[in-house]
Inverse folding.
C-alpha cells in the first residue's frame, strides 16, 4: 500500500485528481443549468455571443464557484460546456470501428482495473469518460473500455478512475 506522500507525488494520480476536480466544477454548473432554465439560457447566450469561450468559461467558474482557472483548464472546460450546450436528447450508436480502435489502444484491458477484457464484445463496455448525461456524444475521444464490474460501479460518476487509482473503490 502506497503512503499518502507517494500518492501525492505521483504525476499520473495528480493529473487524474486535477481532471476529477475540473469535472466536479463542470458537474455543479451543469446541475444548476438543469434546475434553472433561465440560467441555462443565459449561459447559452453568452457562449453563443462570445469570441473567447475559454475566457467566458473562466469568468463563469470564478463568478459561480469562486475558482480561478488556468488558461489550459479554462480551454478544457470550455470544450465540455460547448458539448453540453449542443447535447442531443438521444445516444448515437458507437461504430464497430471506434470500438475496435479503442480496444487496440487500451491493449484489451479495462481502463479502470486493468483486467484483461478478452474478445467477447458483449462483455466489453464502451463507457463515456465524461458521462453522457453531461456531454452527450459531442466530444471526440470521450470513450474508454471497461469490464462489467467497473462499468456498473462507475455508472455516471466522474471520479471512479481517480478512486480506482488510489484504491478507494
Amino acid at each position: 500500500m502506497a503512503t499518502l506522500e507517494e500518492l501525492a507525488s505521483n504525476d499520473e494520480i495528480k493529473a487524474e485528481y486535477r481532471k476529477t476536480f475540473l469535472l466536479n466544477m463542470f458537474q455543479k454548473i451543469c446541475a444548476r443549468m438543469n434546475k434553472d432554465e433561465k440560467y441555462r439560457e443565459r449561459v447559452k447566450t453568452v457562449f453563443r455571443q462570445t469570441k473567447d469561450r475559454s475566457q467566458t468559461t473562466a469568468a463563469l467558474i470564478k463568478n459561480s464557484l469562486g475558482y480561478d482557472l488556468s488558461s489550459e483548464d479554462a480551454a478544457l472546460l470550455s470544450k465540455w460546456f460547448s458539448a453540453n450546450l449542443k447535447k442531443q436528447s438521444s445516444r448515437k450508436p458507437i461504430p464497430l470501428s471506434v470500438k475496435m480502435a479503442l480496444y487496440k489502444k487500451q491493449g484489451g484491458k479495462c481502463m479502470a482495473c486493468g483486467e484483461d477484457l478478452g474478445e467477447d464484445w458483449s462483455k466489453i463496455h464502451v463507457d463515456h469518460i465524461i458521462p453522457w448525461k453531461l456531454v452527450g456524444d459531442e466530444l471526440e475521444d470521450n470513450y474508454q473500455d471497461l469490464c462489467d464490474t467497473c462499468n456498473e460501479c462507475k455508472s455516471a460518476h466522474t471520479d471512479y478512475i481517480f478512486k480506482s487509482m488510489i484504491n478507494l473503490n
The chain has nine helices and two strands. The mean pLDDT is 87.
